[in-house]
Amino acid sequence: MSSNAQQERRFPDDFLFGTATASYQIEGAWNVDGKGENIWDRMTHTKPHVIKDMSNGDIAANSYYNYKRDVEMMRELGLDAYRFSISWSRILPNPLAPYEVNQAGVDFYNNYINEMLKYNITPMATIYHWDLPQKLQDLGGLLNPLFPEWFEDYARVVFENFGDRVKLWITFNEPIVICYQGYGGNVKAPLLNLTDVGTYYCAKNLLLAHAKGYHAYNNDFKPAQNGECGITIGVTWYGPLTDSEEDHYAAELKRQVEWGIYAEPIFSEQGGFPKEFAEVVAQKSIEQGYKKSRLPELTEEERKFIQGSFDFFGVNHYTASLVSANEHKTVNAVPSMLDDVDVGVYTPDDWLSSATDWLKMAPNSMYNVLTHLKEKYNNPALYITENGWSQVPEAGLIDDDRIVYYRAALNSVLDSLEAGVNLKGYMAWSLMDNYEWMKGYTEPFGLYEVDFKSEAKTRTPRKSAFVYKQIVKTRVIDPNYEPTEMVMWIDEGH
């Protein structure tokens, strides 16, 4: 397609452009004003060696005190919306006593939300983005069958306090990271590494918790507040390495285990866990000497309760891989989720690499994901709730690879809109550099650079910020646009 033709393609005027962040990654103030301890506080303080630079989120970008500057950055970018998350332990220091609400925590989010609304920026709030109160983890966290009740209690507090102004709610961010990386593996807090059943038991309780939160909102808050509630699922595209039937099946199995296990029960017409994957786990479990499948069953009542519990599907999308039935396999723990699917995954060397080992720029991956979800789940309302690119901190303000990535992703979004995908908005990850979980501060994703060494945690726009601002303003991707404001901004002594 010629660049002129690309320039003629426009995003709809009501399409929401925004950016995204998460509480533990930006807020700091880890033990201030009554906030309780969460699992990331505990892990980074007691096992600092698991973090690449042995850092923590105690201060991070210090948004607890810098929130007005954050909103000023949103205004500089001309954003329509901003996705942030709420810290459970800041709102409920004792999560088992949901009526003991920490007013200082509520005040912080009220101030943040009100500052956004003052400038017509639509708040999109994630209720849970990985920072579980430590007290709940001590009781088993998401493996405790009481977890859905705990989550509903917390969600009701949040709806009650902020739902008069927040109209876009996300229950959970990226279930696979919570369940597989935290419970089934040891690459995110709480590092349980229960490879046999951790992922699967967590998945069932998370789905029930999501549905409880959704129905609480739908029944008791939506009639007065008129908002929407969905869930955000990380959807990496997995395509077949070759056109063989085996590789197509392997790719489908990989899609089911990575995100279908969470999406299928909510968004499919039949509900329940993905059929092929459930059969594979059941078969392997019996072969391994278990009396029944390691993937717990959903009762008919639970299946119906979870099915259809959405107003929209939030998609975090970054990259893709190719899947083989027989090649590129690695050794996995037995039993484990990865051993259950037993497929090989390959990423071509010629895809542009970021600073993050799993993140490469894959051709048309955004389009593949969005059109796949459209066909599979009867064209639900979708939001891209994260999409972005990392670089090394030393790369500075001229982030041309990030600009290449964003332009490619957003052209793929336009292709998807033209294909009839019901896509409502796009949140770039991230507004600013932040605490990148196990990678600490070594792989920043921000449109704004944060000077973590400075007392003020000074924020400075990168070149990509000016390019994104131009796209938001004009609703057009101009491949030749060079931000002259940045030159002027630097000339002015910034």
UniProtKB/TrEMBL annotation:
<comment type="similarity">
    <text>Belongs to the glycosyl hydrolase 1 family. Klotho subfamily.</text>
</comment>
<dbReference type="InterPro" id="IPR033132">
    <property type="entry name" value="GH_1_N_CS"/>
</dbReference>
<keyword id="KW-0378">Hydrolase</keyword>
<keyword id="KW-0326">Glycosidase</keyword>
<dbReference type="Pfam" id="PF00232">
    <property type="entry name" value="Glyco_hydro_1"/>
</dbReference>
<protein>
    <recommendedName>
        <fullName>Cytosolic beta-glucosidase</fullName>
        <ecNumber>3.2.1.21</ecNumber>
        <ecNumber>3.2.1.46</ecNumber>
    </recommendedName>
</protein>
<dbReference type="InterPro" id="IPR001360">
    <property type="entry name" value="Glyco_hydro_1"/>
</dbReference>
<dbReference type="InterPro" id="IPR017853">
    <property type="entry name" value="GH"/>
</dbReference>
<dbReference type="GO" id="GO:0004336">
    <property type="term" value="F:galactosylceramidase activity"/>
</dbReference>
<dbReference type="GO" id="GO:0008422">
    <property type="term" value="F:beta-glucosidase activity"/>
</dbReference>
<dbReference type="GO" id="GO:0016052">
    <property type="term" value="P:carbohydrate catabolic process"/>
</dbReference>
